Sequence to fold (322 residues):
Amino acid sequence: MRSRPRRNRKSALVRAWTAESSGLSAARLVYPLFVHEHSADVPVGSMPGCARLSAEGLLREVDGALEDGIGAVCLFPALDEDQKTPRGEEASNPEGLIPRSVSALKARWPELVVVTDVALDPYSSDGHDGIVSAGRILNDETVAVLVEQALCQARAGADVIAPSDMMDGRVGAIRDALDGEGFEEVSILSYTAKYASSFYGPFRDALDSAPKAGDKKTYQMDPRNVREAVREARLDEEEGADLLMVKPAGPYLDVLRALRESTELPLAAYQVSGEYAMLKAASQAGWLEEKSAVLESLQAIRRAGADVILTYYARQAARWMA
Ligand code: PBG
Fold:
C-alpha cells in the first residue's frame, strides 16, 4: 500500500494541517430567541433550555450570550391570541413587541447584531406567513404588508432583516423600501431555500403559530427539490439579498453545497427547532454525548458551505468551543 490516508490523521497537528473546513467559531453563530409580553420567562416544553423571554429575561439572556462570545441574535415574537388578526397588523406596530425589544437591545449594546424575522405567522390569526383569502395565500398583497413590517424593524434599529415568508419578490420590494428611507446599511438575510419541513414543530409550539388550516406547501419549498433552490438563490441575488439561507440545515446539506457552488454570496443555515429537539432529547436520555454530537452537527453544516449558522445551541456551542 503506497497510499495510506491514515498518515494524514496521525496527530492533532497533522490533522490541523489537513483540515478542509475550519473556522467554526462563536463569531459565526446567531442565537434565535423568543420574546413575549409577560413578566416571567416561560420554558418551551419541546425545546428544553429555551424559553419565551420577558423583556428583562431577554436582556439577561443576551448579556450571557455576549459573555459566551455570541455577537448576533435573531428575535421571534410569541403573541397572545387576541393580538393576532387575518392581516397581522401588529407586525408593523412601531410600539410592538419586536420594535421595543430591538430598541432596548441596541440601546444597551450598539455593537450587537440584531436580526429580525419578516413574516406574518406570529401575527396571523390564520397561522400563515401571508394573508389568506379563500384558502389561498396571497402573494403580492402580502409583500406590501411585509415591506411595512421590515421598515418598522429598520426604524427600531434592526441591523439585518430576515424575510422567512417565501413570498415571491419580497427581497426586491424590501430592498427598495429600505433604500427609499435611507436604510442602505440595513442588510437582507433572505430565507432563500426554506423547505416545507416537519422540523419546525417545536418552533410552532414556542410561538403558538401553527397554521389553523392547510399547510405551507404552496409557498415553502418541496423537500424533493434542489435545482429549485438554485433558482430561488439567483432571484434573491438579483433582488439585492446580502446573504442567503438554507433551512432546515442538517437534512439539507446537499442544498447548501449546491448553493455554495452556484453563488458568491455568503450563506447561512438554520439548525431549526426540530433539529435542536432531537439532539437535546437524545442527549437527555443519555443516548448521545451532547457536546460532541452538537459540535459535529455544526461542523457538518459549516463543511457543506455555511458561513453563518443560526442555532438554539449557540451559547452552549460557544462555551464548548472556548
Ligand atoms: C416562520 C418561521 C418558522 C421558523 C422560522 N420562521 C416556522 C414556519 O415556517 O412554520 C422555524 C424555525 C425553527 O423551527 O426553529 N416564518
